[in-house]
């Protein structure tokens, strides 16, 4: 007879960002996903007809999601001095907000307040409705941009999830729920890894290893984003140049080059260049280049209001732009980091998650569980799909520099990728060494 598992929750987030792959991949709508185990059917995973977008509840989430994004960055940066950083704050926010559906009392309050929500201004129901709308709007795929963000729960087969919890995670968070035999660790690992590999189009493989047979639940979050630059770089201009990691260290990188019109601004107070590079579709990347020795000064004020100020000052002007090709990834112990934003009970025996399962031990989380977030970033000219693309631009515009400045990203810089329509921070990165991948 199989032993009843202790309700220790293993929480896993897998994020992926890839620019300009060579082939379009289909979005996956098959709820069974070839994953072994029982799938719990429920209501529409897209929330269609439940909370019409015309209500725009998601707008109330925008400030809090941005605050959490930059707070999380600062916590990561404080521990990862002089290292590459890359993560998806919206995927982390969505996962913890979904977990709040099964939380009660102080645990519930800690999760939502840890996500930077003011519960006097935004009700719990509005938060879930807002995420429902937001995920629905972000999940899109067309010829210009592909963005897929979702969640899945793998629950120990001997436990009985509450139907309300199953219904809520499906209707609000587009989540899939599978019954899993964690006593068969290798089988459970294969089931979860196959799911992640499929959802990230083969880019994240074998993320789960050495699962504890006493695991009761694994939450998986994935985000896949593929877009092409609105104004692609020509491979013929890419050449090897020095990238100065610090005053003593330089590395050779493939530096892309393009002369053209970009929204840009030099912040004299913070001593940094801002260049916004748009993608085809509704997304844009804000590249932030601090002057030498000014990185920490810029990081201190990397806040929602600072980015809003920058966006107001950006002007469309011609520049000589140099940006390195790079591919990096970041892996983070989210469990340790979120405790610093106030989620102190969540991964302890004091946690109240009694809204998840009927099991008498279902409200208790043990501190032995783990939380992982992995994100990957790939930046290059635009791949083979960009070959032969020509972009014509007006030769002169009002507000142009007398002589177009040369903005050369050949030292550590920051990166914020935004969905312009929903004002959502999709990814935040810091590139210290373009040649280091993780």
Automatic annotation (TrEMBL):
Q: Name all Serpin domain ranges.
A: 70-434
InterPro entries per the UniProt record, alphabetical: Serpin_CS, Serpin_dom, Serpin_fam, Serpin_sf, Serpin_sf_1, Serpin_sf_2
Domain of life here?
A: Eukaryota
Q: Name one GO molecular function term.
A: serine-type endopeptidase inhibitor activity
Signal sequence span is: 1-22
A GO CC annotation given for this chain: extracellular space
SUPFAM superfamilies attached here? Answer: Serpins
Q: Which Pfam families match?
A: Serpin
Q: Which UniProt keywords apply?
A: Glycoprotein, Protease inhibitor, Serine protease inhibitor, Signal
Q: What family is this protein classified in?
A: Belongs to the serpin family.
Q: Return the protein name.
A: Serpin domain-containing protein
Q: Tell me the organism.
A: Bubo bubo
Taxonomic lineage per UniProt?
Eukaryota, Metazoa, Chordata, Craniata, Vertebrata
């Amino acid at each position: 007879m199989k032993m009843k598992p202790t309700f220790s929750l293993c929480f896993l987030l897998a994020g992926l960002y890839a620019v300009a792959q060579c082939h379009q991949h289909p979005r996956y709508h098959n709820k069974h996903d070839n994953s072994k185990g029982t799938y719990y059917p429920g209501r529409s995973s897209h929330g269609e007809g439940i909370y019409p977008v015309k209500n725009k509840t998601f707008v109330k989430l925008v400030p809090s999601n941005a605050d959490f994004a930059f707070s999380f960055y600062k916590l990561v940066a404080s521990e990862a001095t002089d290292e590459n950083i890359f993560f998806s704050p919206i995927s982390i926010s969505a996962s913890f907000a979904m977990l709040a559906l099964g939380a009660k009392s102080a645990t519930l309050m800690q999760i939502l307040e840890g996500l930077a929500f003011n519960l006097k201004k935004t009700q719990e129901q509005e938060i879930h409705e807002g995420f429902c709308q937001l995920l629905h709007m972000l999940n899109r795929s067309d010829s210009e941009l592909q963005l897929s963000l979702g969640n899945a729960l793998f629950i120990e087969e001997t436990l009985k999830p509450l139907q309300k919890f199953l219904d809520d995670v499906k209707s609000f968070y587009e989540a899939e729920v599978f019954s899993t035999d964690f006593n068969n660790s290798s089988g459970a690992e294969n089931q979860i890894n196959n799911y992640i590999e499929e959802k990230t189009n083969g880019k994240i493989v074998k993320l789960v290893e050495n699962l504890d047979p006493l695991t009761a639940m694994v939450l998986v979050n994935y985000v896949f984003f593929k877009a092409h630059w609105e104004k692609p770089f020509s491979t013929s201009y890419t050449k090897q140049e020095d990238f100065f990691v610090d005053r003593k260290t330089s590395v050779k990188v493939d530096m892309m080059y393009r002369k053209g019109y970009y929204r840009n601004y030099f912040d004299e107070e913070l001593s940094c260049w801002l260049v916004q590079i748009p993608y085809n579709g509704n997304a844009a990347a804000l590249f932030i280049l601090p002057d030498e020795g000014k990185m920490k000064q810029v990081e201190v004020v990397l806040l929602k209001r600072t980015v809003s100020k920058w966006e107001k000052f950006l002007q469309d002007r011609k520049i000589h732009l140099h940006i390195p090709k790079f591919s990096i990834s970041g892996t983070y112990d989210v469990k340790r980091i979120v405790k610093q934003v106030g989620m102190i009970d969540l991964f302890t025996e004091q946690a109240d998650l009694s809204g998840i399962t009927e099991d008498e031990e279902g409200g208790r989380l043990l501190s032995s569980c783990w939380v992982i977030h992995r994100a990957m970033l790939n930046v290059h000219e635009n791949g083979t799909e960009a070959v032969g693309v020509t972009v014509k631009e007006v030769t002169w515009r009002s507000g142009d520099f007398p002589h177009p400045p040369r903005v050369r990203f050949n030292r550590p810089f920051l990166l914020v990728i935004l969905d312009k329509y929903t004002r959502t921070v999709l990814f935040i990165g810091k590139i210290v060494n373009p040649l280091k991948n993780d």
